Amino acid sequence: MESSPDAMRYGTGKVRLSLRVNDDDLELLVPVHKTLLEVLREDLDLTGTKHGCELGECGACAVLVDGQPILSCLALPIELQGSAITTVEGLTGAAEPHALQWTFAELGAAQCGYCTPGMLVTAAALLAAEPRPSRAQIVDALSGNLCRCTGYVKIFEAVELAAARQADGAVGPASYTP
Amino acid sequence: MMRLPSFTYLAPRGLTEAADQLARHQPDALVVAGGTDLLPNMKRRQQQPKVVIGLRLVAELRGIAETEDGGLRIGAMMPLAALAGDPRLAERYPALAVAANLVSTPHLRRMGTFGGNLCLDTRCTYYDQSYHWRESIDFCMKCPDTNSGAICWVAPESPRCWAVSSADTAPVAVALGARLRLVSVHGERTLDAGAFFRDDGIHYLDRRPDEILADAWFPSRAGWRMTYLKLRRRGSFDFPVLGVAAAVKLSDGAVEQVRLVLGSVGSAPVDVSEAAAPLVGTTPTPAAIEAIAATAWRGARPLDNTDLHYAWRKKMARVYVRRALAEVCAA
User: C-alpha angle with apex B95: B89 to B101, nearest 5 degrees?
Assistant: First the structure.
């Protein structure tokens, strides 16, 4: 048993956290009850990740933790120290958009756009694990992301087109010749 | 939605330390596993622990281990996605793998854990609402305020709470005879999954506030065939409004043993294996299975406190029992 009660205790004031977000190592001073979503948007100005239902019923707040899509509205930053967090802002390192961002724009897979960041990071994780996913795999991977505009078909087509381009070594239309 | 209320967070690095902290901080502490049930409840102010004990660093609660009898011991902190993708589960307890894979969404299956699903808070249309929604009609007995809240809004004359057991893995654990291990500062005890779940929407688990669910042992079910069927509005996201777990041990096509459990039609899984007992010693025909379904569905007592109409949910219990038994008894 620990000699001092409650080793690794984080009180109700602000606590010091180390987070790795979009390849940046950050030191933060935040209340322990702030969700990852709130910290990303309010303390780190990464507003690409959206507030949706905040109860796990929509997927708008999805981000990647060690490459896997999770919901930032139900994640506590204190539990993610040592993990690599990727938001939609971190999908690309350079100025060039991610292949998915090109195809979502080209095919009208984003209408109001509110679900798009969650869709993008979730689809990016799928393509990283499965470069040429079937339609069924895409549907399954995105089954935790609600879209109330598109009816999903254009989103699925955009993921398929991005996969096809990546297989050809291309990213966006400028560098892509069918 | 309101933000999380403030709390102190503890990060024990072992099960002994976690149990010690949980006991020491009663009645103000709760443990958190994946957080996908507790954190929404805290945002809705259904639970407001002053101390949250995170089990993330407790290695003893992880892993899936072989046991001598050919069974598996599954740690409570294993993510549901890990159960859904484990080849040993797919081979030995396919109904459990299927149930785990039917919980909510891929995102939440990565976060949510097996133990968290077994301990999932019971659900109700009148309970799973924001603080202000509940305040506006007066709080119910499952989540009373300091000076109000003695009523069940589903059944206002009822002395008890009818919130619904909504965990997909719970009826499967009961059907397969899982043994659950609970750990506290007073030691540990094991009990049958069938005894763990209680038919009471408020006190829905036989778990003391200072106990931590550590793991579940599934005894060998070699030679058994099993399935889990889930009814819900959408193919993703939704909690079950009916679940049927069925398992049979067959010998040359004849039933040696049968287990049949209904989920999400009461405050606990409903074991209706007795209703299926006439199948034992026979090679089930469609007519025999229909006769079992006509008896077994009476165990379902859904009320008007979930999605979809309760009378239809009750009728569908008969349909789903028939489908589940037909699947496991198929030649």
Answer: 80
Structure token digits, residue B152: 């069940």
Strands B8-10 and B51-54: parallel
CA distance B85 to B79: 10
Neighbours of A65 (CB within 10 A): 18
For residue B247, the distance in angstroms to the closest alpha carbon of chain A comes to 27
Cα distance between residue A63 and residue A69, in whole Å: 5
**Residues B191/B182, Cβ–Cβ less than 8 Å:** yes
Residue in chain B closest to A141 (alpha carbons) equals B106
Residue B20 contacts A, CB cutoff 8 Å: yes
pLDDT digits (tens, 9 = 90+) for B270-294: 999 999 999 999 999 999 999 999 9
**CA gap A110, A113 in Å, rounded:** 5
Q: Cβ contacts (< 8 Å) between B4 and chain A: which residues?
A: 33-35
B129 at the A interface (CB within 8 A)? no
pLDDT digits 0-9 by tens, B94-103: 999 999 999 9
Report CA Rg, chain A.
18
| Chain A CB contacts of B24 below 8 Å | 5
Could you give the count of Cα atoms lying within 13 Å of A135 in the half-sphere of its Cβ? 5
B16 vs A: CB within 8 A: yes
Is the distance from CB of B7 to CB of B52 less than 8 angstroms?
yes
How far is the C-alpha of B330 from the C-alpha of B320, rounded, in Å?
A: 15
Q: What is the ipTM of this complex?
A: 0.95
Which residues does residue B245 pair with via DSSP β-bridges, in sequence order? B228, B261
Which residues fall within 8 angstroms of residue A13, CB to CB, at 6 or more apart? A31
Q: Say if the Cβ atoms of B8 and A57 lie within 8 Å.
A: no
Question: Distance between CA A89 and CA A117 in Å, rounded?
Answer: 9
Specify the pLDDT at position B99: 98
Nearest to A155 by CA among A133, A130, A138: A138
Task: At A75, give phi and psi (nearest 5°).
Answer: -110, 135
Yes or no: say if A72 and A34 are a contact pair by the CB < 8 Å rule. Answer: no
Give the side-chain half-sphere CA count within 13 A for B236: 17
Any A CB within 8 A of B110 CB: yes
What is the pLDDT, as a whole number, of residue A1?
42
Residue A132 contacts B, CB cutoff 8 Å: no
Residue type, A102: W
CB pairs under 8 A between A and B: 108
Q: What residues of chain A lie within 8 A of the CB of B111, using their CB? A: 70-71, 74-75
* Chain A CB within 8 Å of residue B234 CB: no
Contact B241, B320 (CB under 8 A): no
Minimum Cα–Cα distance from B239: chain A residue: A57
Chain B residue closest in CA terms to A58: B237
Two structure tokens written together for A62: 């999805």
CB contact under 8 A, B1 and A53: yes
Q: And the tokens for B165?
A: 């057991």
